[in-house]
């Protein structure tokens, strides 16, 4: 299995700390040929450098590691996807506001052009008269600028929701996980409908990712009280810093 703690340390540097209490300090310190080395609180490697911080053991940094770190990486990948989607939706929605006046005219022109294009597209083996383009133009050519502004606003709002999901997931916030689970689940019927209308590999992949994301969020992150809910989540994340583990393993001097 990939050790994400090591990768994280490779990218961002080790986290070393000298506790004031000598009993704890002894557990994190080693003497090497290079001199004194301190155990990294994230990956557990001994680093032959002065500790980055020092102070009471209780104030030692508690880096995200192990299972919590793996989960944070998944949350952040999902956050990046949502940020890309949100940007695309916002761009479409805001563009709709600016071009709303010109769209009906443009669609009408395009509809008139379809019969003229018919012979050319027929040689390409594409029957434009009966294509999705002609059907779409039939359906949308009567659209009013007001309707376009309304649609644009709805699309931009959905883009804003996706950005909110992205921020919440990136920061690993509980509200972000709930928002993402609910919003993603709400979109799934629409995605299935879209897929029935027009199948594409991209849509299938996106749908599979979103279904997996909802299932993963609810079960792995224990939303809605599933698998013990937030209490079980906290208990499991008590697998915190190595220093905490070291403290728990402390042998009392009076024994
Ligand atoms: Zn490290």
What structural keywords apply?
single chain; 255 residues; mainly alpha; 2 domains; three-stranded antiparallel sheet; two-stranded parallel ribbon; 5 strands; 65% helix; binds zinc ion
Question: Any overview of this molecule?
Answer:
Helix 3 runs antiparallel to helix 6 (145-170) and helix 4 (103-123) packs antiparallel against helix 5. The protein folds into 2 domains: 4-63, no CATH class; 66-236, no CATH class. The protein has helices at residues 4-12, 22-28, 66-99, 103-123, 132-140, 145-170, 174-197, 201-220, 229-236, 242-248; strands at 17-19, 29-32, 35-39, 46-47, 53-55. It starts with a helix and ends in a 7-residue tail after the last helix. The strands form 2 sheets. Strands 2-3-4 form a 3-stranded antiparallel sheet. Strands 1-5 form a two-stranded parallel sheet. Helices cover 65% and strands 7% of the residues. With 255 residues, it is mainly alpha-helical. The longest helix has 34 residues, at 66-99. Bound molecules: zinc ion. Zinc ion binds at residues 9, 14, 40, 42-43, 45.
